[in-house]
């Protein structure tokens, strides 16, 4: 396996340490693969992460966002697992082991909500760029500016 030394990026790029961290994390192979998940695009600025978490209740799962990282973790205590067991397993194919998944979110992507249904955890995400961050086109001589949004333009009153 090829490894990359990204330490020169830390020495020469000021303010880009988050990008170097993302490259470093992407180079690591996630061998665990548990729990499996999907990432869907539901439109231009809407996304959904779906994770298969059979056997977990909403109380067993924590969803935390910090800076641009979404962390989903879950686990059951051993006493809770023993209480739910009625017999001895001959084969155990449904894993209920502890897990932690991290997702890097782009700027201005926020978690709208989460819901657990039929063993699937759905996390809804939405990108909302603040009004002051959207590009503006200034018309020469008119004193009016227009907000550019993709290929559509909306007229905005000049402040």
What's this entry about, in short?
With 159 residues, the protein is α+β, with helices and mostly antiparallel strands. The chain is 15% helix and 38% strand.
Descriptive report:
There is one protein chain. With 159 residues, the chain is an alpha+beta fold. The chain has three domains: 1-31, no CATH class; 32-128, Immunoglobulin-like (Sandwich), CATH 2.60.40.790; 129-159, no CATH class. Helices cover 15% and strands 38% of the residues. It is built from three helices and ten strands; from the N terminus they run ααββββαββββββ. The protein has helices at 7-12, 17-27, 78-84, and strands at 37-41, 46-52, 61-66, 69-74, 99-104, 109-117, 120-127, 136-138, 145-149, 152-156. The strands form three sheets. A four-stranded antiparallel beta sheet has the order 1-2-7-6, with no helix packed on it. The protein has a three-stranded antiparallel beta sheet with strand order 3-4-5, with no helix packed on it. Strands 8-9-10 form a three-stranded antiparallel beta sheet, with no helix packed on it. Strand 3 and strand 4 (69-74) form a beta hairpin.
